[in-house]
């Protein structure tokens, strides 16, 4: 059994989590420990005690630790990518790519540990020096989702450690294998003092609740559902803790009449259906101008018909299974909801049988939808895309922005005028032009607006805003 890591030791849990391969329900990936609230508090105490030592470590010591972790991730990308794809269901190339991204993230923050600067300001009083610098926040609680089981933990853990914070990490129950493998590398390759990094696998109601409520946890970073995120935000704000929330999206991809059809179809297929559509940045609303609509739909159906939906580890698989039975049931319920409101499923939406029992769903393309329908208001988080026909560019922008979410948006056009205007008017935190709405660089800020995100941005140099606190000092010269 794979154990939790608390206070520098591998510790058995109070229960066992059986990790099942969604491509093959007879394949047990492994048995992983589940902690309870008491063990979570032990991890928090260990992190709190270790913080005093770790925050006094040199920037070079932290940089070297992040570099070693990144080096091992990159060296083992194929092995770890296979584990990731086996337990989460994204294709093997996607799994290897995700591990590669995680390694690059640690390498990036190795450099950031050395680049954390400050400034000296001129004082308004004679003989006084004013200095501004950044200090680590303290204990960071990290709660991550199942859809990117190595990349998202990496882009939260790496800056936390690089800037001198200690960490309590709770991964999603569905993907403990990737989290455990990452944790083992962090602990060993990073050569961190006991208590600086802690892995506590278990239910959010136990482990997550302890982290969110503890006065020793100075900041909580969470990626997951909107409802859970809002509860975490309220709990943290009630006790004055810093909070960073990433809570999903209902991302629009606008296709204009002047778009290159091949580019538009490729962008839509990638953004809507790759990674089985299980990306918060996925293109779930395809907003298509009237003049290109029918040609676009025909080309989409032709391209979808050629995709291979199968075991995530099989060569040539384009789309793997849905991650779990619960998620599959949710996807099917949204497809049926769209039908009941007048939507037309022009491709997919059916369960598929493969050589092994798994959660296989043909990617669904739904036309004749209105932006007011449930399918266009709520996040589905599966291989399901709905099409909204609009008469012109102005209506397309209005529909794209008519959502409570604001994570990512995209437009396919050959018009510089429309591309420039859309980048300005989109109310999303990230805008893509002739590119999938999903897919971002590790050195650039990540995050949205409105109901998608709350708090400072993730990734890149902007991560310092969350993981450090600004201190201003005045000295009589």
From TrEMBL:
PROSITE patterns: ALDEHYDE_DEHYDR_CYS, ALDEHYDE_DEHYDR_GLU. InterPro entries: Ald_DH/histidinol_DH, Ald_DH_C, Ald_DH_CS_CYS, Ald_DH_CS_GLU, Ald_DH_N, Aldehyde_DH_dom. The active site is at 246. It comes from the Bacteria. Pfam families: Aldedh (PF00171). Residues 18-472 form the Aldehyde dehydrogenase domain. Keywords: Oxidoreductase. PANTHER family: ALDEHYDE DEHYDROGENASE-RELATED. Belongs to the aldehyde dehydrogenase family. This is Aldehyde dehydrogenase family protein. It comes from Aromatoleum evansii (Azoarcus evansii). The lineage of its organism: Bacteria, Pseudomonadati, Pseudomonadota, Betaproteobacteria, Rhodocyclales.
